[in-house]
Amino acid sequence: MFGERVGYIVWFSDYKAARGLDKYGSLHYLSRKMHYAVLYMNADNAEETVRNLQRLPYVKRVERSFRGEIKTEYEKNVPDKTRFYGL
């Protein structure tokens, strides 16, 4: 039903103009202070959409977000030392 989604970080110079980025995908977050936006879009159209984003006059840089590829399941490799501190 839903295709593969990919995230991009879009650095911009004009906050008001950046609110129009929702035309290019799902606008997840806009940072007013740091001047960046988090944008999700379909993976099959991503290359063409990034090229269109880079042509916009208020866009400084577009970076790929690797948030979905970071391992979020952690292992505990160190032994539990609580039994050594008992009375």
CATH-defined architecture: 2-Layer Sandwich
Q: Which percent bin holds the helix content? A: 10-25%
Assess the beta-strand content as a share of residues: 25-35%
Rg, nearest Å: 20 Å
The strands making up the biggest β-sheet line up spatially as: 2-3-1-4
Biggest sheet details: 4 strands, antiparallel
The pLDDT mean sits at: 89
* CATH homologous superfamily annotation: Peptidase S8 propeptide/proteinase inhibitor I9
Domain module count: 1
The total strand number stands at: 4
Distance between the termini: 58 Å
Q: Structural class of the helices, strands and pairings?
A: alpha+beta
Number of discrete helical segments: 2
pLDDT below 50 for ≥5 consecutive residues: which ranges? Answer: none
Order of helices and strands: EHEEHE
The CATH topology is given as Alpha-Beta Plaits
Based on Cα principal axes, name the global outline: elongated
CATH class: Alpha Beta
Helices and strands, with pairings:
Blueprint: E1 5-12, H1 15-18, E2 26-31, E3 36-42, H2 46-54, E4 59-64
Antiparallel strand pairs: 1-3, 1-4, 2-3
Write structural notes for this entry.
The chain is α+β, with helices and mostly antiparallel strands and 87 residues long. It has a single domain (5-69), classed as Peptidase S8 propeptide/proteinase inhibitor I9 (Alpha-Beta Plaits, 2-Layer Sandwich). The protein is 15% helix and 31% strand. It contains two helices and four strands, in the order βαββαβ. The protein has helices at 15-18, 46-54; strands at 5-12, 26-31, 36-42, 59-64. Strands 2-3-1-4 form a four-stranded antiparallel β-sheet, covered by helices on one side. The longest helix is centred in the middle third of the chain and has 9 residues, at 46-54.
